[in-house]
Automatic annotation (TrEMBL):
SUPFAM superfamilies: Periplasmic binding protein-like II (SSF53850), Winged helix' DNA-binding domain (SSF46785)
Family that this chain belongs to: Belongs to the LysR transcriptional regulatory family.
Domain HTH lysR-type: 8-65
UniProt KW keywords: Activator, DNA-binding, Transcription, Transcription regulation
Superkingdom as given in the UniProt entry: Bacteria
Protein name, UniProt field: Hydrogen peroxide-inducible genes activator
PROSITE patterns for the chain: HTH_LYSR
Pfam family, one: LysR_substrate
Gene3D superfamilies documented for this protein: Periplasmic binding protein-like II, Winged helix-like DNA-binding domain superfamily/Winged helix DNA-binding domain
Length: 314
C-alpha cells in the first residue's frame, strides 16, 4: 500500500491565505510577522506537498493560478472550521456548551430537576440537557454502562466505580388521610406510629428502606401487599385510608398543597430526612459540565428550595 503524501500544515494554509489577501510576499510577511524568505519557503513547501503551482510572481506582486484559486477557497474553509473547533473546545472546557445526559429516580427528578433545568437554560443557553428517569437500580446500571453522564438519586449508594456528591437533606413527612386521627396533629413523634399500617414503594427504591426501617424501629406494620410504584400511587392509597406513608418535602410542595389536598402531611418532631445527591463515573474525573450542573443545583437549593430542604454539600 503506497504511503500517503504529507498533508499541508495549518501554518502553510494560513500563510497562503495571507499571501492571497495581501497580493505581495513582502506585505504578507509583514502581516504574519515573519521574514519574506520564510514565507516564500512555506509557500513553496505547500506547492510541493500539493503537487500544484499555486502562485505566479509578477513585477507588481503575485497572481493566483486557477489551481491556486481553488485551493484558496478550500484553505479558507479549513481555517474557519478549525477556528470553530477550537472555540467549541474552549466552550466545552468552560462548561458553557455541550450535551449532558442526566437521569434521576422518579421520587426525586420530577420535583427537583425542573428548577435546575430552567437555571441552566438561563445561565448557559448553549448547554443541552437530556433528562430521563427510571428505577434506581436501572439508572445506576445505565450510568455505569455509559448511557448517562450523571444521575440524581437517594444516597447512600454503594458503587466503588462512582464519584458521589451530596446536594441536600430532604425532610420526610407522614402522609395520612384527611380524616385520620393523626391528621390534626401539628407534629408527631415516632412513638405515635406504633401499630400504624405503613405503605411503601417496592424494595428497589431507597425510600422503601427508610420506611421499612421506620416500621421496624417504631412497631408500625409495613404493608408489603400494597407496595406502590410511584409517589402518586402511594398518595392515592393513603387518601383511601389504606395506610400512612412517608412523602418527601419537594413532592408535597408540588402535589400536596392547598385546602383541597387529598392527604395531610404531618412533620416529625425533631425532623426526619433523606439524603439526595448525584453520582457520576469515577473514570470521567469531574468535567466542567458536571461542575456547572452542581453549581446550578446548589443555587436552586439555596434559593428556590430554601426552607423546603436542607443544603448539605459534600
Amino acid at each position: 500500500m503506497p504511503t500517503p503524501p504529507d498533508l499541508p500544515s495549518m501554518r502553510q494554509l494560513r500563510y497562503f491565505v495571507a499571501l492571497a489577501d495581501a497580493g505581495q510576499y513582502r506585505r504578507a510577511a509583514e502581516r504574519m510577522g515573519i521574514s519574506q524568505p520564510s514565507l516564500s519557503l512555506q509557500i513553496s513547501a505547500l506547492e510541493e506537498r500539493l503537487a500544484l503551482r499555486l502562485v505566479e510572481r509578477r513585477r507588481g506582486g503575485t497572481l493566483l493560478t486557477p489551481a491556486g484559486r481553488e485551493v484558496l477557497s478550500r484553505a479558507r474553509l479549513i481555517l474557519s472550521q478549525t477556528e470553530d473547533l477550537v472555540a467549541q473546545a474552549h466552550s466545552l472546557t468552560a462548561g458553557v456548551t455541550g450535551t449532558l445526559r442526566l437521569a434521576s429516580t422518579p421520587t426525586i427528578g420530577p420535583y427537583m430537576l425542573p428548577a435546575v433545568v430552567r437555571h441552566l437554560h438561563e445561565t448557559h443557553p448553549g448547554l443541552r440537557l437530556i433528562a430521563r428517569d427510571g428505577p434506581p437500580r436501572e439508572v445506576v446500571e445505565d450510568l455505569l454502562a455509559g448511557q448517562h453522564d450523571l444521575i440524581v438519586t437517594q444516597l447512600p449508594l454503594a458503587a466503588g466505580d462512582l464519584s458521589l456528591r451530596r446536594l441536600y437533606r430532604e425532610p420526610l413527612f407522614l402522609a395520612v388521610a384527611r380524616d385520620h386521627p393523626l391528621a390534626s396533629r401539628a407534629q408527631i413523634g415516632r412513638d405515635d406510629l406504633a401499630g400504624l399500617d405503613l405503605l411503601s414503594l417496592n424494595p428497589g427504591y431507597g425510600l422503601h428502606d427508610v420506611i421499612a426501617t421506620l416500621a421496624r424501629d417504631t412497631g408500625a406494620r409495613l404493608q408489603s401487599e400494597y407496595e406502590g410504584t410511584s409517589l402518586d400511587a402511594l398518595r392515592q392509597m393513603v387518601a383511601m385510608n389504606m395506610g400512612a406513608t412517608l412523602l418527601p418535602a419537594l413532592y408535597i410542595r408540588s402535589e400536596v398543597a392547598g385546602a383541597d389536598a387529598d392527604v395531610v402531611a404531618v412533620p416529625f418532631r425533631g425532623g426526619m430526612t433523606r439524603m439526595v445527591g448525584v453520582a457520576w463515573r469515577r473514570s470521567l474525573g469531574k468535567p466542567r459540565l458536571i461542575d456547572q450542573f452542581l453549581a446550578a443545583a446548589d443555587d436552586v437549593v439555596a434559593t428556590a428550595y430554601k426552607g423546603r430542604v436542607i443544603q448539605d454539600r459534600g
